[in-house]
Amino acid sequence: MKKSFLLLLPALSMVWGLSSCKRDLQRPSWDIGVVGPVIHSSLGLGNMIADSLLQVNPDSSVVLSFSGTVYELDADTLLKLPDTTITNSFSLPTIIPSVNVTPGQLVFNQTETRYFNGQGVQLTIADLRSGGCYLTLSSTINQPVDFTYEILTAFKSGQHFITTSRIPPGSIAQPSQVVVYVDLSGYRFILTDAGATQFNQYTTKTTIKMSADAQPTTVTNQDVVAVSSTFSGLEPSYAKGYFGSRIESFVNEPSNFSSFEKIISGVLDIDQVNVNLTFTNYIGADARITLQSLKAARGADTVVLAHSIIGSAININRATDPGGIVIPSTYSVNLNNGNSNIDQIIELLPLAFSSSLDFHINPLGNVAAHHDFFYAPKTVKADLNFTLPLNIIANNLTLADTIDLNLERGKNGHIRSGKLHIDISNGFPLAADFQLFFMNGSGTLTDSIVQPNSILAAYTNAQNIVTANRDSELIITVNESQMDRLYNGERLLLRIAFSTSSLTQHVTLYDYYRIHVRMRGDFNYRIGS
Amino acid sequence: MKSRIIYTLLVHLCLIPAVHAQSVVEPEFDPQEGTAHEVKLFGNGYYLSSGTPIRFMSKFTKGGFIDSTLKSDVLSDLRKNNRIGAEIHTGVEYYAHRIPFFKSSGWSWYFGASYHMNYNAAYSKNLFQLAFFGNRGFAGQTVELGPLNANVLSYGKLSAGAFNKETKSRIALSLVAGQQFSQLNVDRALFYTAGNGSQLDLDLSEQFRSSDTSHRTGKINGWGSAADFVLYFNTGSNKSLKINQGFRVALEDFGFIRWNANSITQKKDSAYRYEGFEVTDLLNGINQPFNVDNLNDTLGIKGTTGAQTHMLPLTFSVAAITETFSDKKVQAFYGFRLRALSNYTPMIHLGMQFNPIHDLALSLYGAFGGYGGFRAGLSASGKIGEHIRYGFCTGNIAGWISKNAYGRDLSLTISTRF
Questions:
Q1: How far is it, in rounded angstroms, from Cα B327 to Cα A390?
Q2: In this predicted complex, what is the ipTM?
Q3: CB contact, 8 Å: A529 with chain B?
Q4: What are the tens digits of pLDDT across the range B76-112?
Q5: DSSP states of B265-284 as a string?
Q6: Looking at the DSSP assignment, which residues form a beta bridge with residue A465?
Q7: How far is Cα A5 from Cα A2, in angstroms, rounded to an integer?
Q8: Which of A289, B21, B61, B159 is the most exposed place for a label (fewest CB within 10 A)?
Q9: Which residues in chain B have their CB less than 8 angstroms from residue A414's CB?
Q10: How far is A455 from chain B (nearest CA, A)?
Q11: Which residues of B touch A26 (CB under 8 A)?
Q12: Using one digit for the tens of pLDDT, what is the confidence trace for A388-424?
């Protein structure tokens, strides 16, 4: 008994020891209070706005340049290859009652020329970036046959298009049927003949043979092999030919305008406005555009452009493509406070434009002798190019943006709650009200995590030029529940409302203005997991 | 993990006794004619501190949440400077009674193998408060976090030598395989937290040494040698001393380890100011400024590598010992122990052995020093037949009774001869 116990003791001890190892995998955890600096930074306009959008004048004042598209011609409107279905039936002439066929024997063979419906467009070349052909094959022959379909004028890597399918045995009462889809993306269709007298044409070759594993049989003149080919979804990446001479009219064509989408409310008064409305033609065909109206919209508020260009036809030359590189043709109209109401449009802070216009392609006819071209997806577009001296009055101009923090609880610890103090020394003549909101999954704002506070504008003189920085402190308070929500991926909405130091006189922003930011934390931190 | 399992197997399969930092009693065979072989297995592990109770260390080492109450209780118990230590020793000894040591009739060969792990630290109350409460309580103050001394050492020994068959005195030379060592000395760490948290200052004087960190687990990073001397003698009926008492005088781990050329030395005596990481492009995001590389760069800490030699933790002990299995009902024992460890204070012990029967010895003793204050220990030794001796000892009874005790330890030993 004693010996048994002694033998058992080491074993029990070993089990205890190994279980101790398992417990060792757990890590201790405890909470600490951490106070300390986090980061500091100094920001100028160059840190807030991309350098490419900023120009600095000799007096250090800053001009902001940006652009947005207000109209773009849809490629389908310019050039569309409609879905086309062609059906062929193959059978013995009536005078031949029947023939005996052997495996591998050619049964039918046909080459023919077909045409796309160009709808006034005469193409000589089309490179397809997407689209294909559905081949619906049926046979009454009681042995399997091999079907070969070739497009002799469609090439890829120097080879013309060819596909082969097997049609299983059928009967006159119950023909067999096979549907095959073939991808034609990447193929170049040569759509003209050697003499360049025909357009939109292509040549196919259909071959029907008895399969090699078929049994010898008799094909009668009642047997039919039918082929239906449907070209579908053909979209060219490049096309050449004559695009026709026609007028397309568009009414209230909508276009989103993203330049002001982060501004959600407030008033912006701009001292000087200089805008170019630029039409750009990437098509190798002449265009005549008559802009009937251009309307800016922000919600229900709209402003219609008033300028002499409205109702006037403008001619835009065709683009060129030396070496396959498109050089577009442009036409610009200057809009300013003196010749238009463009300032009202800008101060509306539009989120969308709608335009009505007449687009006349090749108004002079086929003057390029079938050398019009088109490189998808670029067609014709109209842009508003803004040049705004940052000499403004802003009154609660409110910007909003969502923030995805992507926080993760670290293996060694994580913040449970705390306060982030942001000390700001503002050198801009702009005050800002700052708020952070939680957004739930449906985008609804819930609670704010910033104590109501403002970033005060810098001190300015009578000319609204900054004379000294002004200090402010923002406090972001996050409780434990809110911190958990951040770790769980809940997003934040940042909302900042700017107001210039003067709401009656325009305030110029200079390149040397800076805002200094220091962040310090007072966190409850959990060491361990 | 792997080394832990190996260790567990070693300890628990071997069930070994220990005469080390805590244990003061070990069962010995009486000299006996006819013995050819004697094997002893021992294991000893303990944790002892001057201020951190078991209930705290249990959570700290085994995992679990250390709540504010527990932290506050510990903080209130701490002195300005505190010590903590933990050791594990396991091993096996073989006494070849019938193989004379170089033709000496009274001396025979002795062989041993053992493994040793030693952790100890001396730290300030302020450092504990910073680590477990954070620096919020120090806002607006400058506090001294030093001195801090922390040591980690693990090594194995293969020993060979001679023992006296009559007295069991022995001398052994050992080949030492160093596994890991780390040594941190912070002489000065003045830490300032600005009242509003905008600035942290650290005036630091520290030195850190470590063995090759690229292979830490289970690898040998250095070699050395050591000598152990253990002398047993009895005063006999010495009239001038007026005692008839056995004594054990030991000098153990007298040696060194030469750690390999990848060993690290870092030294810094600088003042730092931290006002937050500078972010040049705040609006485009902060690219993780809080990583270790940045922190090391900020502190300018760079190490050098090269071979290093360190002494083993030499132990010198003198103890009046008892006759383990005796007809005497009561015997006294006492002694002291010195160790060449920076955080180990001289330890003294005094106790009584009670033999209710000849084959069973029970001891109760008190000890003071080492890594802790006063504690009471208990040991028991016994026989199983003529061939097996066993013993267990705890140097801190309170550690098995109360989680508020400042340490816990256990020594196990079993030996056999035939």
A1: 105
A2: 0.81
A3: no
A4: 999 999 999 999 999 999 999 999 999 888 899 999 9
A5: EEEEEEEEEE--EE-S-GGG
A6: none
A7: 5
A8: B61
A9: none
A10: 17
A11: 62-64
A12: 889 999 998 888 888 777 777 877 888 999 998 989 9
